[in-house]
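User: Run a structure prediction on this.
Assistant: Running it now.
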Amino acid sequence: MKVSDLEAEALKLAPAERADLAAKLLESLETLSEEENELSWAEEAARRDAEIDADADHARPADEVFRHARDRLG
């Protein structure tokens, strides 16, 4: 079963059932081994890098991001 199929089925559940499923899925992430955590972060970094490579026009320099964050904080 594809993740998209599973997601579509899960979204058909009643709100309480979806909440219970979400809680169980989140809890399962807290029991990952160190190696699984490292792999997950490496995959996420690679995904973000590929996203930036595919559309660099949406990337912003870090100093701009930090300046914007400081301005918003006050």
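The two ends are 48 Å apart (CA to CA).
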